[in-house]
Design a protein that fits this description.
Blueprint lengths: L17 H18 L13 H4 L6 H21 L8 H18 L6 H13 L13 H11 L7 H16 L6 H19 L15 H11 L3 H15 L8 H14 L1 H17 L3 E8 L5 E8 L3 H13 L6 H14 L2 E2 L3 E2 L2 H13 L4 H12 L3 H18 L3 H7 L10 E6 L2 E9 L2 E7 L5 E2 L4 H6 L1 H28 L5 E3 H9 L4 H5 L4 E5 L4 E7 L2 E3 L11 E6 L7 H13 L18 H6 L2 E2 L6 E3 H10 L18 E6 L4 E9 L14 E11 L13 H18 L17 H8 L5 H13 L9 E4 L2 E5 L4 E5 L5 E4 L3 E3 L22 H14 L7 H8 L2
Antiparallel strand pairs: 1-2, 3-4, 5-6, 6-7, 7-8, 9-13, 10-11, 10-13, 11-12, 14-18, 15-18, 16-17, 17-18, 19-20, 20-21, 21-22, 22-23
Length: about 850
C-alpha cells in the first residue's frame, strides 16, 4: 500500500469534535499568555490544559488531535509572511507545535493504521516553507513504533509504510539533519530485519551514510569470513549506541566480551586499518554560491570529513581500545587524536568527538605510554579547551601515582628501544644500526654479514622480515617524535625553577635512551646539601664546568636546568666559548639564550612594560605562534569590535601569575579576511596579574627568570609575525598608513634576539668562506659582492644596497640547498640566522646569480 497517496480520508476515523481541539489550543494559549511577557515557544507543563485535560484523553483521541494539528500547522505556515511571534495566530501555532511534539514524545498506544495515517500526514504536509520531512516529530513517532513493535510482528501494511519512510529520509537528507536521518534509517532497518528473521538472527550493522569511511570500512566488512562478520555486526551495533564524553563501565565490559569472542589481534588489525584511513583522509571542500535579491553574490566553502553518526561509531571503537596498551595501539590512537583536532577553516577541529575519545583512551590505557602521548599532544594541539582536558588527565594520572605532573611526564617518555641514543637489531646475518643525529633526526645503517656497511635496506630483509622491519621503522618515527616533543617540553621548563632529585635525574634523563641525548647537551645546576650550586655539562662522559674543569656531581642532592639570567656576563661568555670550542650543539637555546632584564623605563611604568608595544603583526601568524608557546588568544574580528578578545595570556601556575600581552585591532579598509577576522593587529603593553587576588603585580616582584622568558616569548611573536619581516609587504600593497612602520622595523634598532644573532655572527663570520668580504657594521651584516655592497639587517633579514640604500627583495626559496645548513651553530632553531647566512653567501657571489627577479634589482641604480 502506498501511504503517500492515502491522504484523501485521513480524518475519516476521527470522531472528536474539531471544536474541542481548537478550544484546547485556545485555552492553553490564553493561560500561557497571562504568564509570559514574551511568547517564544510554549512549555505545556506550565499550563493546566495539557496535564489535566489533553493528557487524560484516550489514545485514539490523541491520535486524532495529532492529525488535526498537522493540518492546522501546515495551513498556518503556508500563509505566514513574517517571522514575528507577536500576533495571536503565530502564538497559537507555537502552542499547536508544542502539543504535537508532546503527543509524540509521551507514551501513545498506536494501531498500525494510526501509524500509517501519521506517517502519511507528516509526508504530505509542510511544517515550513523549506520543509524537510524531519521538521515534523517523525523521530519521536518512530521511537513509539520501535518500542511497541519490539517483540511482535507487524503487517505488510506497516512494513510498506516503513520502507517508504526510509526512501523519503534518504531523499530529503540535508547536512543539517543528516545525523537524525541516518539514525532513523538504522532503526527502520532494524525493525524490518526483525520482522522477517528469527529472533536469534544477528542484524547486519555497517557504517551508515555516504562518506569515504563508510565506503572503505563496509568493503572490508564484506570481505570478512561469516563468523567474524557476525561478531563485528554486534561490535558495531554496540559502538553505535555510545554517547557522552566518557564510556560507561557497562559499555567497556560488554565491548571487552565481544573483542574476546572475535580475538584481540583481529579487532586491533581491523580498527587500526580504519583509524589509519581516517588519519590519512583529507576533508572534502565544497564551494557554494548564493545570490541575494540585490544581485550581490556570496561565495563560501564548506568542509566535510565523515558523517557525525560514523564519528560516534568511531568514538565507540576508540574507547574499546582502552583495553590495549601495546605500542602500535597507543601510537595509532595518538596519531588519530592529532588528526581529529586538526583545524578546518571556518569550522574548528575536524572531529573533536573522536579526538576527545582518543584522549580518554590514552589516559585510561594501562601503563605510562598513553600518558607519554598525552604529554606530546599537549604540545601539538592548539585548542585551549583540549589543552585543559589533557592537563586534567595528566594531573589525574600524576595524582594516582603520587607524583607531580612534571615527574609523570618524565616517567612516561618512551625510549623507543634506544640505549644512549642508538639501537642495534639483528636480522639474520645483517645488523640494523639506528643512531640519533639531532632533534627529530635519526640515521639507519645496515651492516652486512662480512662487516661492510650498507645504506639501503637489504632486499631479503624486506621480503623475509617485513613485519619486523615495519616495527623498526615505527620505532624510528617514535624516537624522532619524542626528540622534538621532549626538546620543546624541556624548553618550557626554563619558565620555572624546577628542581628534581639527583636519583630522578639519573633514572629518567641520563639513563634514558632518548632523554640522555638531550640532557647531556644541556647545562645543569647541581645543588649540594650545603646549598652550594655548581654548573656542568657532559662532554665525553665527563661532567665539566665552563672552565673545562672536571666536576664531581656525586655530592649533589638536587638538579635543575641552568638559565643564563641567573649568571654573570662573564659566566655566560665562558659557556658560549666552551660550546664553540668543542663544537657542541645544544638542542635548544640555553647558553645563547636571549635574556630580558628590567629597563629604566619599566622601573618607571612599574606595573607594565611597553617594550614590545606599537608593532604591527599578522594576526593569524601571531595566533599560531602564541598557541605554540602555550599562550591563550582568541582571534579578533570586525564583527565584535575586539570586545574581550584583546589579550593574549600565559598561565604561570607555579607562581600564581598570569602574563598578559594586550592586543588592538587594526581597523582599515579591506583589512579583514572572508570570515571577518582582522588581518593585522597592533601590540600594546605586557603586564602580570596575581591569579589569587586578580591584582596587578609590580614588575620588580616578578622572578627574573619568569620575566625574561615571558618577554622572550613576546619578542618571538613580534620578531616572526611583524610585517616588517615580510620583504614583499610594501610591494603587495600593505596598509598605507603603516608603511613608515615597515621601514622603521625592517632597518631599525635590534631586538634582544637580533643582538644575540649579532654576537654569534661576529664570532662566526670571520671563520667562514665569506669572511674576507663580510663584516658586522652596527645593525647590519655587510657583504661586499662583485657588483655591489649589501647591508643585511640582523633583525628583519631585509637588505639594502649601497651606495644609495636601495631596497633589495629576496624571498627565501626553501627548495634550494642552503649553504648555511653545513655551518656549525651552537644551538638549533634560529631560522632567521640561517636566512641571514644564506643571503650573505648568495650575495658574496652576486656575479653568478641567475634569478632575474634578483639581478634586475641589483642592476637598477
Amino acid at each position: 500500500m502506498n501511504f503517500l497517496k492515502k491522504i484523501k480520508n485521513v480524518f475519516s476515523d476521527t470522531t472528536t469534535d474539531e471544536k474541542e481541539f481548537k478550544q484546547a489550543v485556545h485555552d492553553t494559549w490564553k493561560e500561557y499568555r497571562t504568564k509570559r511577557e514574551y511568547f517564544w515557544g510554549c512549555n505545556l507543563n506550565d499550563t493546566t490544559t495539557w496535564p489535566q485535560i489533553v493528557k487524560t484523553w484516550p489514545d485514539n483521541k490523541k491520535v486524532a488531535f495529532a492529525l488535526w494539528l498537522v493540518t492546522a500547522i501546515s495551513h498556518f505556515m503556508s500563509g505566514r509572511r513574517t517571522g514575528s511571534n507577536a500576533d495571536e495566530a503565530s502564538q497559537k501555532n507555537a502552542v499547536q507545535q508544542a502539543y504535537l511534539q508532546a503527543l509524540m514524545r509521551n507514551k501513545l498506544l498506536l494501531e498500525e493504521d494510526d501509524v500509517v495515517r501519521l506517517f502519511n500526514a507528516f509526508s504530505q504536509y509542510k511544517a515550513n516553507d523549506w520543509s524537510y520531512l524531519t521538521t515534523w516529530p517523525v523521530a519521536s513517532l518512530l521511537n513509539q513504533v520501535v518500542k511497541q513493535w519490539k517483540d511482535k510482528p507487524f503487517s505488510p501494511v506497516l512494513e510498506d509504510a516503513l520502507r517508504q519512510l526510509k526512501e523519503l529520509l534518504d531523499k530529503y537528507m540535508s547536512p543539517y539533519d543528516q545525523k537524525e536521518h541516518i539514525k532513523m534509517v538504522g532503526k527502520i532497518d532494524g525493525m524490518l530485519f526483525k520482522n522477517t528473521n528469527a529472533s536469534s538472527a544477528v542484524k547486519p550493522v555497517k557504517f551508515m551514510g555516504n562518506d569515504p569511511l563508510a565506503e572503505f570500512a563496509n568493503l572490508s566488512l564484506e570481505r570478512m569470513p561469516g563468523n567474524e562478520k557476525l561478531v563485528w555486526y554486534q561490535i558495531l551495533a554496540l559502538a553505535q549506541k555510545v554517547s557522552g564524553a566518557k564510556p560507561s563501565q557497562k559499555y567497556l565490559n560488554e565491548i571487552k566480551t565481544l573483542i574476546k569472542a572475535l580475538g584481540a589481534d583481529k579487532f586491533k588489525k581491523t580498527t587500526h586499518d580504519w583509524f589509519h584511513f581516517l588519519i590519512e583522509l583529507k576533508e572534502r571542500e565544497e564551494t557554494h554560491s548564493y545570490t541575494y535579491s540585490s544581485g550581490y553574490e556570496y561565495n563560501y566553502s564548506s568542509y566535510d570529513y565523515i558523517t557525525s553518526v560514523n564519528a560516534d561509531l568511531i568514538k565507540g571503537l576508540v574507547w574499546a581500545c582502552a583495553h590495549f596498551h601495546d605500542g602500535a595501539s597507543i601510537q595509532t590512537i595518538s596519531a588519530l587524536a592529532e588528526r581529529a583536532f586538526k583545524k578546518i577553516p571556518g569550522k574548528g577541529p575536524t572531529a573533536a568527538a573522536i579526538g576527545n575519545a582518543c584522549l580518554f583512551t590514552l589516559f585510561a590505557s594501562k601503563g605510562l605510554d598513553g600518558i607519554g602521548q598525552l604529554s606530546r599532544l599537549r604540545l601539538r594541539i592548539k585548542q585551549g579547551s583540549t589543552q585543559a582536558l589533557i592537563d586534567k588527565y595528566l594531573a589525574s594520572a600524576a595524582g594516582e601515582k603520587g607524583v607531580s605532573v612534571s615527574e609523570i611526564e618524565d616517567m612516561a617518555v618512551d625510549d623507543a628501544g634506544m640505549q644512549h641514543g642508538n639501537k642495534t637489531i639483528s636480522f639474520d646475518d645483517y645488523t640494523a644500526v639506528v643512531n640519533i643525529t639531532g632533534i627529530g633526526k635519526t640515521e639507519l645503517n645496515w651492516i652486512k654479514p662480512d662487516g661492510a656497511p650498507q645504506k639501503s635496506v637489504p632486499a631479503h630483509i624486506k621480503d623475509k622480515h617485513a613485519a619486523r622491519l615495519k616495527k623498526l621503522k615505527d620505532n624510528i618515527k617514535l624516537a624522532e617524535q619524542t626528540l622534538v616533543t621532549q626538546r620543546d617540553r624541556i624548553d618550557r621548563m626554563l619558565r620555572e625553577d624546577r628542581r628534581m632529585s639527583k636519583e630522578h635525574f639519573h633514572t629518567y634523563y641520563l639513563q634514558h635512551g632518548i632523554m640522555s641525548f638531550i640532557a647531556e647537551r644541556l647545562i645543569w645546576n647541581f645543588h649540594a646539601a650545603d646549598n652550594t650550586i655548581r654548573q656542568a655539562i657532559c662532554l665525553n662522559d665527563q661532567w665539566m664546568n665552563q672552565h673545562k674543569e672536571p666536576l664531581d656531581i656525586t655530592t649533589a642532592t638536587e638538579v635543575s636546568l641552568w638559565h643564563p639570567v641567573q649568571a654573570s656576563v662573564e659566566t655566560i661568555k665562558s659557556w658560549r666559548e666552551f660550546l664553540v670550542a668543542h663544537q657542541l650543539q645544544q638542542p635548544l637555546k640555553q647558553a645563547f639564550r636571549e635574556i630580558y632584564l628590567l629597563t629604566e623605563a619599566e622601573f618607571t611604568t612599574k606595573t607594565y612594560s611597553n617594550r614590545m608595544a606599537a608593532h604591527l603583526l599578522r594576526q593569524h601568524q601571531f595566533n599560531s605562534l602564541a598557541k605554540s608557546r602555550n599562550w591563550r588568544y582568541t582571534l579578533m574580528g570586525a564583527f565584535d569590535n575586539g570586545m574581550d578578545n584583546g589579550i593574549a595570556s600565559l598561565s604561570l601556575p607555579a607562581y600564581n601569575l598570569r602574563a598578559e600581552y594586550w592586543i588592538n585591532e587594526v581597523n582599515a579598509v579591506d583589512a579583514t579576511n572572508d570570515t571577518g577576522i582582522w588581518n593585522y593587529i597592533s601590540t600594546d603593553q605586557v603586564r602580570f596579574l596575581d591569579t589569587l587576588s586578580g591584582n596587578l603585580v609590580d614588575l620588580v616582584e616578578i622572578p627574573a627568570q619568569v620575566f625574561s622568558e615571558v618577554m622572550r616569548d613576546v619578542d618571538l611573536f613580534v620578531g616572526v609575525a611583524s610585517v616588517g619581516n615580510d620583504p614583499t609587504w610594501q610591494d603587495s600593497g600593505g596598509l598605507p598608513a603603516y608603511r613608515d612602520y615597515w621601514t622603521a622595523y625592517s632597518f631599525g634598532e635590534l631586538s634582544e634576539v637580533a643582538k644575540n644573532r649579532k654576537d654569534i655572527l661576529a664570532n662566526l663570520v670571520p671563520r667562514l668562506k665569506i669572511g674576507p668580504v663580510a663584516t658586522i657594521r652596527d645593525k647590519f651584516l655587510v657583504v661586499k659582492g662583485k657588483l655591489r655592497t649589501y647591508k643585511i639587517h640582523i633583525g628583519s633579514t631585509n637588505i639594502l644596497m649601497e651606495p644609495n640604500d636601495q631596497y633589495l627583495c629576496i624571498v627565501p626559496d626553501r627548495s634550494q640547498q642552503n649553504p648555511a645548513e653545513k655551518i656549525f651553530l651552537p644551538f638549533e632553531g634560529d631560522n632567521g640566522l640561517s636566512v641571514i647566512l644564506s643571503k650573505a653567501f648568495l650575495l658574496a657571489e652576486d656575479d653568478v646569480i641567475t634569478d632575474p627577479t634578483i639581478t634586475s634589482q641589483i642592476k637598477l641604480k
